[in-house]
Amino acid sequence: MTQRPKLPFSKVRRIGSTVYLSGELGFEADGSLPAGIAAQTRNCLNRIKATLEAEGLGLANVVSCTCYLTDADDFAEFNAVYGSVFSDPLPVRTTVRTDLMIDAKVEITVIAEA
Length: 114
Fold this sequence. Notes:
By secondary structure, the protein is of the alpha+beta class. It contains two helices and six strands, in the order βββαβαββ. The chain has one domain (12-113): CATH 3.30.1330.40. The protein has helices at 37-54, 75-85; strands at 12-15, 18-21, 24-25, 62-69, 92-97, 106-113. Helix 1 runs parallel beside helix 2. The radius of gyration is 14 Å and the shape is globular.
């Protein structure tokens, strides 16, 4: 089994009742990235959900999201998947178009409150 290199950041930090997640990408279980924005967004949100559940929280605890898209043309499709996951009260959100450090279409970081 190949061990991943240790990266210089924490995946999750809890300070008091606030939980901060590092940016999450839409990898498949095998480490590959699917081609489309919808699949990457769904995977990304599922990975965020799993991390939150490991902290005893869920997506309903998310109060803030920062979303990074590499292509503004993907915004509507991204938004449709994102909107199917969160319910009222919706988290606050900032979405920006930017380059990412790897060949992913989306990265999402969240702050959740216990």
